[in-house]
Every structure is written in structure tokens, then in C-alpha cells.
Amino acid sequence: MSNRIEPIRSVKGTRDLLPPDTSLWQRVEAEAHRIFAAYHYGEIRTPILEETALFARGVGAETDIVTKEMYTFLDHEDSLTLRPEATASVVRAYIEHSLYNLGGVQKLYYIGPMFRRERPQKGRYRQFYQIGAEVLGSQNPLVDVEVIEMLVLFLERVGIREYQLLVNSVGCSTCRPAYLEALRVALQDVKGAMCVDCQRRADTNPLRVLDCKVEADQAIIEKLPKIIDHLDPECRQHFDRVSSELQARGLVYHVTPRLVRGLDYYTRTTFEITSGALGAQNALVGGGRYDGLSEMLGGPSTPGIGFSIGQDRLILAVQAAAVLQPGNPLAAYVVWMGEPTLAPAARLVRELRAQGLTVGIDYDSMKIKKAMGIANKLQARFAIIIGEGELASGKYQVKNMATSEQTELAPELIGEFVRDKLRITN
Ligand code: AMP
After folding, report:
1. 310 CA distance to ligand 1 centroid (A)?
2. What is the pLDDT of residues 376-401, one digit of tens each?
3. Burial grade of 153 (CB within 10 A; 0-12, 13-18, 19 or more)
4. Which residues contact 184 (CB under 8 A, 6 or more apart)?
5. What is the CATH T-level fold of the domain 332-422, as seen in this structure?
6. What angle (nearest 5°) sits at the alpha carbon of residue 132, between those of residues 101 and 327?
7. What confidence tens digit (pLDDT) does each residue in 353-380 have?
8. What is the mean pLDDT of residues 299-323?
9. Which residues pair with 50 in a beta bridge?
10. Which residues line ligand 1 (CB under 6 A)?
11. How far is Cα 374 from Cα 361, in angstroms, rounded to an integer?
12. Would you kindly state where each structural domain of the chain is located, as residue ranges?
């Protein structure tokens, strides 16, 4: 019997992201940085730890997230929480740093991990990643449209073609109470036939009934009053402008009356993007207006709108679309033979890497056959061979691994040669 030590595994619902997949994560993030910058958003990085009260107020004390899913602990006498989402943090930072004094609208984006204690499954994790953007300081419906336009451009750039944009309006604190009353009344007649959760929600928070995923409840939900039919004139006008401008910009959307956010400070536009490539967890992006949130968090009255993309699901969809390939292909692998060639080989490798080429080398001495086998296995585009003969002549062998064509070149010409060839064959 060996008393082998049990290895420690990652925590349930969390996972390691490994190469070559991480290269896909980097490319997706690079595209987000590029496109959001083009729309003049600046990156914000907020702490992962926040006071629990921020989420109770900023996400809503009644939500599943706050009631069941947060990682909360006492740090001495302070209750702290690992952020389950970032909008509340962004608005907290907006208030804390008086960003409203800078004038104009503030356009911010973030990329990072979030934590929710949900039942793990494919596309649903306890540590997951979001890429999100927020605009603070404008009520203009054209801002809603621009936010959606930027999001769609980003998705298309990373190769997502198969998706649906769902849009709705949840009205505002003026028109929603009458709708909620109509919904409550309608629910009294039908709730007996619904799931136990809906029976409870019908009394505590009727809007959340519309979120119910239970199959048997769907036909009943279809027939409930729709908030879109209860908007006041300003909210109606806002929604109509969003709709007409989405059309004008060629952005295809589906009005989805069930798409609601069950909290008072969510207002007007809500949207979601789903993707058929994702299976059961098909929600890829959630977004909407939250004109009341800044005030709820003790800041000035400031309208806001934003979205959050589930990056883990985005990567699954990117992999399904297979437009971006993972990996960091090796431009060249340097083979050296005999101790005197090691130093010049290492010098060449450093120079090529400094030029931005991805280059491999092994420092253990080995036979050429084995070294070429490694170059093959690593799928290097070129093998650069330096033996004592090459050292004496001052010209190294550069072998194109696909064609086996071999060229003799002085070391200082190799970088340009490889780059040139790669550009041609790429
Ligand atoms: P939400 O903040 O709930 O509106 O979620 C925004 C997006 O984040 C969703 O559309 C999902 O793509 C993603 N998301 C939410 N929860 C999880 C989770 N537990 N695991 C993976 N992705 C998630």
C-alpha cells in the first residue's frame, strides 16, 4: 500500500483555462478592447470584493442572485461578497469618483470574473467571466441603439453568426405599477395551475413569473398581460425610437414581451442575445437600462444602460463557429547541433522573438532526427538548422516544413525571410 497524497482539485463550478484555449480568450478580449475603444469606451477595473450591501441594493434583495447565489463572508465585522456581476460596482465607482462631474456621458467597459453559487453545468459555472459595457448620463434612445450596435459588431467580429437579439421595454416607475396590478389580477385566476415558485412569485414579485422556465407554465405565461401594452407615452416613444433606429441600422431584433428585469430601477429598454449554438444555457448577453440605479446607490439621478456578455458561453459559441482558431502557431523551431552552436542559436532565437515571431528551441542536446521530429510535432512553419558547418559558413539552413524547401541564409536575414514567407502563405 502506498500512502500517496490525494491531489487537491479545483473547487466545484470553477475550472482552469488552459492553452491553447486561453489564446482564444485573449483574441476575444483583444477584439473587445479594439471595438469598445473605437466607440470611445474606457476600461474600468473594479475590485472583486465589495460590501455585501452594494449588491443587496444594486442587484436587488429579492433576486435569486442575492438570496441564494452570493459568496458572502464576514471579514471581522464587515460583510463582504465576491461580486456576482459588475454593473453595481461600476455605478458605485461612478459615484465614488464623482465621474458625473467630468461632464457628458461616461462610457466604461470591463472584463473579469464573477461569482455565483449556481448548479454547475455546461455553460454555467460558479466562477465565470463577463465582458460588459455601461453608459452613464444619457436617456437618449439612440444611446440604447448604439450600445446594441457595438455589441452586435463585436459578436460578428469574433465569428458569431447564429444569434437572436431580443428586445423589450419594462416601462418606468410611472407606468409599471398599473401594469403590475394588471399582472397581479390576471395571475390570481391562473396561478393555481402554475409551479410552486410561480404561485409564490404571483404574490411577492409577479414580474419574475415571466422568467419562469417550467415547460408547463409557458402557455399560461403567453396569455398574461404584456408590459409593452401598458407603457406611458414617454416610454412608448422611447421604445418606438429604439425600434425604428434598430431597423434603420439593419439590426434584426424580436420584440419579446417576457424579457423583464424585476426591479424598480430597471427602466425602459431591456435586451438579450441568445445563441442556438449554446444548448440549454442559451443566453449569451443580458442588457438594459437602469435609470434609477445611481440614485438607489446614493448617487445623483443618472440614467444608465449597459450589457454583459457571458465570456465562457461566448467562447463556446466561438468554438462552435470555428472562425477563430485557438493556438499560437510556432513560426520557427531552432535546431542546434554541437555545443559551439548553442550560443549562436540562442542569440538568433532572442532576435527573432524580439521581432515578434513565436520561436521554439530546446536546450538539451539531441540528434537532428529527434529535433526535427519535435519541430514537426510542434507544427513549426520553419526549422532553422545550425550545425558546425553552418557556423563556419555563417549561413544557416532554413527549412520550410510544409514544402521541405531549404534555403541558406545569414542569421540577420532570417527574421525578414520568415515573416515574408508567412505573410505570403497566411
Ligand atoms: P446576467 O448578469 O445574469 O444578466 O448575465 C449576463 C450573461 O452572463 C448571461 O447571458 C450569461 O451569458 C452569463 N452568465 C450568467 N451567469 C452565468 C454562469 N453562472 N456561468 C456562465 N455564464 C453566466
Report:
1. 5
2. 999 999 999 999 999 999 999 999 99
3. middle
4. 202, 203, 206
5. Rossmann fold (3.40.50)
6. 135
7. 999 999 999 999 999 999 999 999 999 9
8. 94
9. 81
10. 85, 116, 118, 123-125, 128, 130, 283-286, 308, 310, 312-313
11. 10
12. 21-175+231-321, 332-422
Q: What is the CATH code for 21-175+231-321?
A: 3.30.930.10
Q: Whose CA is nearest to atom 20 of ligand 1?
A: 124
Q: Which residues lie closer than 8 Å to 126 by C-beta, 6 or more apart?
A: 11, 12, 13, 14, 115, 116, 117, 118, 120
- Provide the CB-side half-sphere exposure for 278 (13 A, CA): 26
- Classified as helix, coil or strand, 110 is strand
Please check whether residue 321 is in contact with residue 163, taking contact to mean a CB–CB distance below 8 angstroms: no
Q: State the pLDDT at residue 394.
A: 97
Half-sphere exposure of 81 (CA within 13 A, CB side): 27
Report the C-alpha dihedral over residues 80, 86, 88, 90, rounded to 10 degrees.
110
Cα(246)–Cα(144) distance, rounded to whole angstroms? Answer: 9
Using one digit for the tens of pLDDT, what is the confidence trace for 155-199? 999 999 889 999 999 999 899 999 999 999 999 999 999 999 899
Q: Compute the C-alpha angle 58/62/68, nearest 5°.
A: 95
C-alpha grid cell for residue 132? 460588459
Query: pLDDT category, 417, cuts 50, 70, 90?
Result: very high
Q: In angstroms, what is the span from residue 315 Cα to ligand 1's centroid?
A: 13
Q: Do domains 21-175+231-321 and 332-422 have the same CATH topology?
A: no
pLDDT score for 196: 93
Q: What is the largest CA-CA distance in the chain?
A: 93
Distance CA 123, CA 312 (A): 7
The predicted pLDDT at position 262 comes to 61
| pLDDT tens track for 230-261 | 999 999 999 999 999 999 999 999 999 989 87
Ligand 1 closest atom vs CA 130: 8
Residue 308 near residue 85 (C-beta atoms within 8 A): yes
Report whether 287 contacts 271 (CB < 8 A): yes
Q: How many whole angstroms separate alpha carbon 262 and alpha carbon 237? A: 22
Q: Which pTM was predicted?
A: 0.90
